[in-house]
């Protein structure tokens, strides 16, 4: 009967440890079917119903209006590992280019046509996220709202320094 060498056994143990640790690190949220409410909470239909997306008022500005539904404002989502948002795009508005570093996003257009909302009508979309807190990184604010050297940005985007200075001046 032939056995594995000590080197092969050590390699297999390292590989097994790596797989176990990687799997654990990839899913930091506690996911469960149902999270019991805090003591003293009246557990009825109201606990499982959010009315936050009803009768939303929105600004008619250049950017989409976002109303989020997450565990902070709808406790019934606790433990489910999800969050949601309603996006309202006034005519001619945009959603700033962005990423969600801790989750993926699925966007469903529920009213209108969305292509940088070139129409004269309001567009509504519903987003769902694979995380209770997907995070948000605004690309314009991240690139032009910090102290990255103008020369680096000018060369990277192949535009004039005037454009970079103008974009930077518009960030909070």
UniProtKB/TrEMBL annotation:
<keyword id="KW-0732">Signal</keyword>
<dbReference type="InterPro" id="IPR011051">
    <property type="entry name" value="RmlC_Cupin_sf"/>
</dbReference>
<feature type="domain" description="Cupin type-1">
    <location>
        <begin position="56"/>
        <end position="165"/>
    </location>
</feature>
<protein>
    <recommendedName>
        <fullName>Cupin type-1 domain-containing protein</fullName>
    </recommendedName>
</protein>
<dbReference type="InterPro" id="IPR014710">
    <property type="entry name" value="RmlC-like_jellyroll"/>
</dbReference>
<dbReference type="Pfam" id="PF00190">
    <property type="entry name" value="Cupin_1"/>
</dbReference>
<dbReference type="InterPro" id="IPR006045">
    <property type="entry name" value="Cupin_1"/>
</dbReference>
<feature type="signal peptide">
    <location>
        <begin position="1"/>
        <end position="25"/>
    </location>
</feature>
């Amino acid at each position: 009967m032939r056995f594995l060498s000590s080197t092969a056994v050590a390699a297999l143990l390292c590989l097994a440890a790596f797989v176990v640790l990687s799997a654990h690190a990839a899913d930091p949220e506690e996911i469960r079917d149902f999270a019991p409410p805090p003591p003293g909470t009246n557990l009825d239909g109201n606990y499982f119903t959010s009315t936050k997306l009803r009768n939303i008022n929105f600004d008619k500005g250049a950017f989409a209006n976002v109303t989020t539904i997450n565990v902070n404002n709808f406790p019934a989502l606790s433990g489910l590992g999800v969050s949601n948002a309603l996006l309202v795009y006034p005519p001619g508005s945009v959603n700033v280019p962005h990423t969600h570093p801790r989750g993926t996003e699925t966007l469903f257009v529920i009213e209108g046509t969305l292509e940088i909302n070139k129409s004269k009508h309001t567009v509504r979309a519903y987003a769902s996220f694979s995380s209770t807190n997907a995070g948000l990184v605004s690309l314009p604010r991240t690139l032009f709202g910090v102290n990255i050297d103008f020369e680096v940005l000018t060369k990277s985007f192949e535009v004039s320094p005037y454009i970079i200075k103008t974009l930077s001046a518009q960030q909070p």
